[in-house]
# Entry
Amino acid sequence: MCLILFSYQMHPLYPLVFAANRDEFYNRPTAPLDFQDEARQILSGRDIKHNGTWLGVTKTGRLAAITNFRDPSIVVENAPSRGHLISDFLTSDESPETYLETVKSMGNQYNGFNIIAGKPTGLFYYSNRGKRIQKIRPGLHGLSNKFLNTPWPKIEKGKAYLKEVIDGNERINPEDIFNILKDNAYPPSHMLPNTGVGRCWEKILSPLFITSKFYGTRSSSIILMEKTGKVIFMERTFIIDSAGPQEENTREFSFIVSP
# Structure
């Protein structure tokens, strides 16, 4: 996943509003959002290639998400799949801090990543390209392929748009957030980051919604966690044809968190 925008402890009805785009090669096999275990406790998409995931929640209120950290100068050959870091947290009963301490101890085995893990009552962030586990403060946050809240154009634009939705609505319409996530406008060239992939790819990767011939945004996800304990998880998947990205399917699940 390459874009996460979220509001934490800001809205009177929604302690957590979480929006994300998953960017991936179009030919990588993927299973859509669904319960991934027989007990129907873990809700996520699934990467069929390595059997991990990029974003998921549980019926006990655990949430975890991951993005790649873009730095082609540091590549770990034969590194384990980063998607298992999310799956393992969702199946664990460890506290987020304890789990991330374990991840930190073996982080150098993996290619670069950012991970968010926790519950609406306590979210934490760690990158294996950083030095510490960070408790996330209430507010608006954005994460792409650098550190949390690095002011890339897509992050600053996405946070500003999400703030409008949060501030302007007592009840949040998921379509307002999907509209944010489908923004495919390029920022001015002088605002592009320099992550070592060349100016052409910096431009391709710069919008909130990415398209190219073989890589781009495969799905958009929204998680709304209400103070009542209700969780709504929506995933909108896309197919790419000659006309560009076309909506393929929208799946929606809801449940009440049970400790």
Q: What stands out?
A: The radius of gyration is 17 Å. The longest helix spans residues 153-168. The chain has five helices and 13 strands.
